[in-house]
């Protein structure tokens, strides 16, 4: 399919347009919407936990672990992306289901990934030889091109949220993939990963406002956090302490590289937002999109002019630069995955906040 052909009532201009199309060129003066005043891409969208869970369980009964990429995953497909299996232009999200006794064999890929455990226990992930236990609420990292496999030696299935920067890496034409040796890696059920023994409980920082640059001075440890598991108990403790100290209606923490204070990975930011009962957040706009996973509780968000009601397990999208605030009658925890580090690294990060009365 070649460049579109524009037309004109002027015969000479019409020939110019035809020649330009034949040469795979487009006249900028005829293009509309190329430079909008503000981002005008996706609207919000919500995937309901009831549906996600039922379909994940069905896939566990009907689909073998080796039928496609050695992973049993239902990918979030935003209806505004024309059928692509992506949640936003830059973020991929999915629900992975692993039955008791199953092994998702090792592979690696250039897109970076993380896992937020939603339900079940007993599974462990091996990341570059480090055996990492997985429990509900835990955040587990599999950085770019790190070997990873999942094993379930237990007697119950596990469901977790997968988040990747796959659409971003794909648009940069930088996707690489490699299968592992095929045989499961022998390992016992670990109590702590090696990364936790070295860095545990040092990778959770206040998220809003961001820490000043002067507070992030240690030398870089690499392109991603060396801490590969962020246990839910540590996250819960940090949020509780922030709320008690500040006495506010909500608090938010950012999962961070414990050696540098930077984001867990150069393309992904992960945060956990806690809202007190009857609490409401400020109203914020942020350049770049986000996926929100409701870890617990129920409530509603006003995203632009659209109200999005949600409950535990639901997943929804925050579009770029859409003003959003969140409130909850019973209290809630929201996990937020965004592409913010990329925009900030290239000088395009932008945010605004205002109080909601």
Report on the structure:
It is a single chain. The protein contains six helices and 23 strands. 17% of the residues lie in helices and 32% in strands. It starts with 10 loop residues before the first helix and ends with a strand. The longest helix has 15 residues, at 232-246. Strands 1, 12, 14, 15, 16, 18, 19, 20, 21 and 22 form a ten-stranded antiparallel β-sheet that branches. The protein has a six-stranded antiparallel β-sheet with strand order 2-3-10-5-8-13. A five-stranded antiparallel β-sheet has the order 7-6-9-4-11, with no helix packed on it. With 357 residues, it is of the alpha+beta class. It has helices spanning 11-22, 49-62, 166-171, 194-199, 232-246, 340-345, and strands at 46-47, 73-75, 92-98, 103-109, 113-119, 124-127, 130-133, 139-142, 148-151, 158-164, 177-179, 204-206, 229-230, 250-255, 269-275, 279-280, 283-286, 290-303, 306-311, 315-318, 324-328, 332-338, 351-354. A hairpin with a 2-residue loop joins strand 18 and strand 19.
Which terms would index this structure?
357 residues, alpha+beta, ten-stranded antiparallel β-sheet, six-stranded antiparallel β-sheet, 6 helices, 32% strand
Helical stretch count? 6
How far is the N terminus from the C terminus?
52 Å
Rounded Rg: 22 Å
Low-confidence stretches: 211-221
How would the global form be characterised?
A: globular
Major beta sheet, specifics? 10 strands, antiparallel
Instruction: Estimate what percentage of residues fall within beta strands.
Output: 25-35%
Query: Given the helix and strand composition, which structural class is it?
Result: alpha+beta
| Overall average pLDDT | 89
Please trace the helix and strand order, writing H or E for each element. HEHEEEEEEEEEHEHEEHEEEEEEEEEHE
How many strand segments? 23
Helix-residue proportion: 10-25%
């Amino acid at each position: 399919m070649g460049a579109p052909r524009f037309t004109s009532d002027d015969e000479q201009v019409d020939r110019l347009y035809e020649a330009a199309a034949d040469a795979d060129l487009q006249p900028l003066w005829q293009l509309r919407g190329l430079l909008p005043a503000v981002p005008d891409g996706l609207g919000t969208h919500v995937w309901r936990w009831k549906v996600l869970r039922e379909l994940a369980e069905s896939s566990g009964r009907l689909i073998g672990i080796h039928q496609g990429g050695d992973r049993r995953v239902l990918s979030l497909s935003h209806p505004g992306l024309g059928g692509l299996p992506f949640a936003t232009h830059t973020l991929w999200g999915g629900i992975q289901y692993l039955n008791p006794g199953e092994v998702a064999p090792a592979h690696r890929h250039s897109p970076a990934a993380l896992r937020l455990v939603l339900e079940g226990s007993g599974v462990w992930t091996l990341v570059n030889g480090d055996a990492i236990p997985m429990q509900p609420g835990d955040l587990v990292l599999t950085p770019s091109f790190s070997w990873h496999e999942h094993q379930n030696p237990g007697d119950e299935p596990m469901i977790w949220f997968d988040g990747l920067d796959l659409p971003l890496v794909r648009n940069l034409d930088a996707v690489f993939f490699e299968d592992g040796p095929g045989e499961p890696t022998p390992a016992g059920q670990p109590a702590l990963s090696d990364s936790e023994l070295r860095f545990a409980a040092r990778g959770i920082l206040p998220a809003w406002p961001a820490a000043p640059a002067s507070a992030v001075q240690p030398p870089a440890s690499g392109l991603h956090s060396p801490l590969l598991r962020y246990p839910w108990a540590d996250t819960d403790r940090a949020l509780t302490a922030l709320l008690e100290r500040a006495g506010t209606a909500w608090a938010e923490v950012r999962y961070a590289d414990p050696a540098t204070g930077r984001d867990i990975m150069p393309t992904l930011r992960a945060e956990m937002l806690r809202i007190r009962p009857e609490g409401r957040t400020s109203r914020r706009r942020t350049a770049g999109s986000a996926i929100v996973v409701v870890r617990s509780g129920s409530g509603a968000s006003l995203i632009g002019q659209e109200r999005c009601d949600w409950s535990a397990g639901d997943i929804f999208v925050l579009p770029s630069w859409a003003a959003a605030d969140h409130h909850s009658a019973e209290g809630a925890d929201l996990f937020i995955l965004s592409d913010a580090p990329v925009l900030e690294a290239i000088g395009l990060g932008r945010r605004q906040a205002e109080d909601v009365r």
